[in-house]
Write a structure and sequence with these properties.
single chain, alpha/beta, FAD/NAD(P)-binding domain, Enolase-like, domain 1, 3 domains, five-stranded parallel sheet, 13 helices, 22 strands, 31% helix, binds flavin-adenine dinucleotide
Length: 466
């Protein structure tokens, strides 16, 4: 039987970073992967395909030109799904190559096959060709990720009714699309489909989309999405979905409304990939959504078995999964590692994109923190005019008395890059004055920080002795 210091299950961001970190600490590491290629949902079906698709959509649809010329700008080019997916394939292949290279360079053994527990230290790996090997490991990291959740009331056929994985196999672009689920993934695909000219109806059980995002930012996004032809059915639930003989889809809502479309994308939640791990042989169990409980160092109830990434639940981001995998490996091999979850940024690649770090207004209000806001609109910034994004905005939240920065919320082009300036200032516990006293390149969107800081500090001038 092969012996390893660490055996990782899954080659997505959590497994990848966990394995490489342990190898860098001089450990003997193997990583099991049940699919024929490495990278997990991140590279093969989730983050990388959806972000590549978004970029291709923005370029090919002429969407970026609409702000520069006028809203009616239409690309004369007829976009096919094939064309969009060619670019996606190219990026996926390159990224898989990068992962494989990193595993090889760091001496990590890739064991292709489905891993399951034999006992708390032994895993069986059933190869794709039917061959089985067993390995013993001192430590195990479960980074098996998630898959789209399905519901019995939804007749998935992969053509008219599909989940986000099957979205990448579509032969053509639907003209009328219903999206069930107003979370990050549903919103991102709704924006892409709308940019391609589809009429989208989004059904969300909760009264608003993206319920963890700042209200003002969600309002701005909702406005944009509506202006792109997205209809929201909020606070509504799908009761039943039917596909007609001629391939039309009818979503019947509990409120008795009917939504007819060419296709329906079901994007409601994800299910942990734990059902085939034989967790009970390791003394572990998962909850009803397939998630494994861990402590702050990512140890499960069995201390030498760690779990990280989407399989442990919120926030289910590639960025966070990487960090969790790294922290798990550092903890197992007694390597000190510092992490600051309160400074993790969130990126939502809607159109326009959204990013935030730190607290929201709702959280500060709930905690009775006296805060002030400073907002800069892209239209006030030269770079905003140059790139034709005149609707973006950046909002700073800071403490009224100490002037310490508490949160940054951005919607608009470059939001997911721009956020890191605010993240750094938050990390160093800086005050809003930093932005006033700093010279930014001109003309850049980073200037928004300065304008927002001035606007926020101006609001303090309206106060006096009480
Ligand atoms: C459409 C979409 C868009 C997204 N966009 C973003 C984004 O913009 N930014 C962001 O940060 N995050 C994004 N995410 C989330 C991100 O993809 C996940 O957070 C990330 O992939 C989770 O990484 P992971 O390592 O936990 O699991 P995964 O990436 O799911 O990898 C798990 C791996 O484990 C393997 N596995 C499972 N069971 C076994 C077994 N028994 N034996 C062997 N191998 C096994 C699987 O085959 C898979 O390869 C997106 C997700 C989706 C679906």
């Amino acid at each position: 039987m092969k012996q390893y210091d660490l055996l990782v299950i899954g080659t997505g961001p959590a497994g990848h970073h966990g394995a490489i970190q342990a190898a860098k600490l001089g450990k003997n590491v193997a990583i099991a992967e049940m699919k024929s290629c490495v990278g997990g949902a991140c590279i093969n079906t989730g983050t990388i395909p959806s972000k590549t698709l978004r970029e291709a959509v923005l370029h090919l649809s002429g969407f970026k030109q609409r702000g520069l010329y006028n809203i009616s700008y239409e690309s004369s080019h007829k976009i096919s799904m094939d064309e969009l997916l060619q670019r996606v394939d190219q990026v996926i292949r390159t990224e898989i190559g990068v992962f494989n290279n990193q595993f090889r360079r760091n001496g990590v053994d890739i064991l292709t096959g489905r891993a399951s527990f034999v006992d708390p230290h032994v895993l069986r790996i059933e190869g794709l060709d039917g061959d089985t090997i067993t390995c013993h490991a001192e430590y195990i990291l479960i980074a098996s990720g998630t898959r789209p959740a399905h519901s019995d009331s939804i007749p998935f056929d992969g053509v008219n009714v599909f989940d986000t994985d099957a979205m990448l196999n579509l032969a053509s672009l639907p003209k009328l699309l219903t999206i069930v689920g107003g979370g990050v993934i549903g919103v991102e695909y709704a924006c892409m489909a709308a940019a391609l000219g589809a009429q989208v109806t989004m059904v969300e059980r909760r009264p608003r989309i993206l319920d963890f995002v700042d209200d003002q930012i969600v309002e701005a996004l909702s406005y944009h999405m509506r202006s792109q032809g997205v209809t929201f059915r909020l606070g509504e639930e799908v009761d039943e979905v039917k596909i007609t003989a001629d391939g039309k889809v009818c979503a019947k809502l509990k409120s008795k409304k009917q939504i007819w479309s060419d296709a329906l994308l079901y994007a409601v939640g994800r299910q942990g990939n734990t059902d085939s791990l034989n967790l009970s042989a390791a003394g572990l169990e998962a909850d009803n959504r397939g998630r494994i409980q861990v402590n702050e160092t990512f140890q499960t109830a069995v201390p030498h078995i760690y779990a990280a990434g989407d399989v442990v639940g919120f926030p289910s981001l590639a960025s966070v999964s990487m960090e969790q995998g790294r922290l798990a490996a550092c903890h197992a091999f007694h390597n000190p590692a510092v992490s600051t979850p309160e400074l993790f940024p969130y990126g939502i690649y809607a159109i326009p994109e959204i990013s935030f770090v730190g607290k929201t207004e709702a959280q500060l209000t709930e905690a009775d923190v006296p805060y002030e806001i400073g907002v800069a609109h892209y239209r006030e910034i030269a770079r905003g005019q140059i790139i034709g994004d005149t609707t973006g905005l950046l909002k700073l939240l800071f403490h009224r008395e100490t002037r310490r920065l508490l949160g940054v919320h951005i919607i608009g082009e470059g939001a997911t890059e721009l956020i890191h300036i605010g993240q750094a200032v938050l990390a160093f516990e800086g005050a809003v004055d930093f932005f006033v006293n700093t010279v930014f390149n001109y003309p850049t969107l980073a200037e928004c920080y300065k304008v927002a800081a001035f606007a926020g500090l101006n609001r303090l001038n309206y106060s006096g002795e009480l």
